[in-house]
Design a protein that fits this description.
Length: 292
Amino acid sequence: MIFSTKHKIQAIQGWKMFASVAILGLSLLLPVQGVQAQSLDSMYFSGGYYNSQLKGQLSQTADSILVVNVRWVSNSDPYTIHYDVGTSMLVSEDTVLTNYHVVKEYAELPAGSKGTLRVASPSNPLQAIDAQIIKADKNRDMALLKLSQKVSYTPITFSKARDNEPVYTIGYPENPMGQLTLLDRLTGDANFKLNTLSSTWVYDAQSKDVPGMDYVGSMQRAVKQGNSGGPVLDADMHVVGMMTFTYKGKTYFINAKTLQEFIGSTTTVKGTISASGSTNIITVPGRIVGKP
């Protein structure tokens, strides 16, 4: 089942998200010289035990896992603002990798509609950066985004997934308060949980239960919307896959080999996204709809 969450709100009077009235906020983190790391106070740790060393490793890695915001207004309904929220991974000083379905609405804006595509690191989320799609593979659900400026965070590195190995994920689903990370609505609320880190393990490094998708592996847990485009990390913080969809209670990720081939290829936009005939695949990021 294709799944999305939509809400309508009155911006002048405040706005409602997931049955709770709230103004999004986060700790204001200023850039520093040298090694940067996201504040632990702005991270939500889920599904496992995290000692101080592991939290430190994940917080430094999280700097390079950027939130993606697509914001658009349709020409057929100019009084409604739409948002899609997803996750991306820094692959060079000015390029990030994400799922195509995260940026699909921006890529396929109807004539006369207006939209923006922006990303931000959790270490400096109030410094949103404009981005443009420079490469996409719709069939395998991948997109490369070029940033309008270079960043100083460390690009990700890749490794091969192994069956039954413990892994960690970083993404931008709803936080425990039911809020999504909307870059143009952030405030300085230090209690805001910006992103979610989870622990699980690889169920199958090369899954065979989704027809026509021999380039995906699976994890023994279904993650929430907003994680799309986020990394699956091994114990050494290497990326072994990119979270893409859930199916029958598991999360499926595009394997590192496929991601590396896509990044290094000269492929331009091609094909269309396919759910492989299944009605249970989730292929949309977190979404909210509101009044301007």
